[in-house]
Amino acid sequence: MVRGRTEMRRIENPTSRQVTFSKRRNGLLKKAFELSVLCDAEVGLIVFSPRGKLSEFASSSMLKTIERYRMNSKEMISNKKSTEEDIQQWKQDTDLMSKKIDSLEDSKRRGCYWKRMLYCKSKEGTQPFHCGRSLCCA
């Protein structure tokens, strides 16, 4: 006999809901225990019933597990902030480098132009260097 797939929706009958909660909670606690034994994992599980009753499982100290979780979650948040700051810095660096590249390419073009123009033409005649006037060699 094959079990049918359970539809995921709230169980309306309070007695059936309580029985299902109790069975599934016990199954979840069992799986947490098995995971900690088989894989040597540090496991902490906290479950509150609809009436507010606490059920918990910890492979070691629950307080140590919670503290470890808090420390790791703080690191994740600080790493995320530092990553966003790094991205902003990289964008600024990229913009600055693009401007420098444009400037270098522009000066390279001007330099090649002046190398081809061996002499600067002016009213006084031909000079072996650029006279400094912006329109004289255009």
UniProtKB/TrEMBL annotation:
Question: Start and end of every MADS-box domain?
Answer: 1-61
Record's GO cellular component terms: nucleus
User: Where can this protein be found?
Assistant: Nucleus
UniProt-listed Pfam families: SRF-TF
Secretion signal, residue range per the UniProt entry: none
> What's a single GO MF annotation on this record?
protein dimerization activity
Asked whether the keyword Transcription regulation is assigned, the reply is yes
Q: Name one GO biological process term.
A: plant organ development
Q: Which SUPFAM superfamilies match?
A: SRF-like
Q: Which PROSITE patterns match?
A: MADS_BOX_1, MADS_BOX_2
Could you tell me the keywords of this UniProt record? DNA-binding, Nucleus, Transcription, Transcription regulation
InterPro entries registered for this protein in UniProt: MADS-box/MEF2_TF (IPR050142), MEF2-like_N (IPR033896), TF_MADSbox (IPR002100), TF_MADSbox_sf (IPR036879)
Protein name, per record: MADS-box protein-like protein
In its UniProt entry, the species of origin is given as Cymbidium goeringii
